[in-house]
Amino acid sequence: xxxxxxxxxxxxxxxxxxxxxxxxxxxxxxxxxxxxxxxxxxxxxxxxxxxxxxxxxxxxxxxxxxxxxxxxxxxxxxxxxxxxxxxxxxxxxxxxxxxxxxxxxxxxxxxxxxxxxxxxxxxxxxxxxxxxxxxxxxxxxxxxxxxxxxxxxxxxxxxxxxxxxxxxxxxxxxxxxxxxxxxxxxxxxxxxxxxxxxxxxxxxxxxxxxxxxxxxxxxxxxxxxxxxxxxxxxxxxxxxxxxxxxxxxxxxxxxxxxxxxxxxxxxxxxxxxxxxxxxxxxxxxxxxxxxxxxxxxxxxxxxxxxxxxxxxxxxxxxxxxxxxxxxxxxxxxxxxxxxxxxxxxxxxxxxxxxxxxxxxxxxxxxxxxxxxxxxxxxxxxxxxxxxxxxxxxxxxxxxxxxxxxxxxxxxxxxxxxxx
Length: 419
Prior knowledge:
about 20% helix, alpha+beta
């Protein structure tokens, strides 16, 4: 070819023209309740989750089985280029979440002499419940793009918690994207294509693959187990808890920055488990550490998983049945001023550390209305007193402001921030 085709121009078409050309692909939309009302009705793991709505999908959406999470650093110094990228990403996300390809021309269409518009590894695969959720880190609000005055107060850096062993290279970042799906190849495909579209404007800072969700976000889901073998997230916020979601999850218009209305704040923590040490610990001690039995997941002294926890009950020796340093006591809303979190964590195994020990644990993710009043006090309590700390180590941390949902094909991720 005599002229080289601009990839950015092609994807620019995807951001503007694809909104119309792809409207039929993403015509299913959430109603006034956003993804809350519709995600629960996803009938099969192959189905598509609506992309448009009041809130971003992937928060109260019933938790899928697989995760690919990525944190990007913005490399362009031009605000207009960053806004253009978010438009292109939104168009691609709208397509991919409905089972389509990332670009208007797909993996095998378009001009043969140009790179394909999609990487192609998801060709023939269904949508698999794919959701893509975006968030903005505190570092995006420095002096590069004139956004400092628009940083929400709730996006303040998290404090250093006792016992933290954080690695800066796998913490923080300007923009995050959470891809959840029932098929790992679908999730990886989505992140791969967003990174490809962003070439020259963003670079991957760190990423994490996850499997085996460790929380339920709907009462229709059974409670899963973490790699320590215990049920995780029994008392999690659920999409059916409409009143609590309004109070504890979604940012309200009067909370500060209006561009965050309908959004939520995401905290990520990569928590490595000392698997080999845990596996040599007695069952009795394991159950006392968690404050639940390992089989049914019932609170100690109770029979069923969802039985109310009795924090007053004493054993024959006059000691609390649920110990003062038990995880379930310290994390419970009644111990933290009524603070709830909506957790969407995943197990991870990243091979071994070279000494024959598994590099494995929990990639913790929690959404909330204000981390200063929710995650921070809960984690401070856990970091200071939790007997589980002997077996875990926090190695990564992130905090991101996830704006409200994309309303329609003329909207895009973060538009209210950049307008």
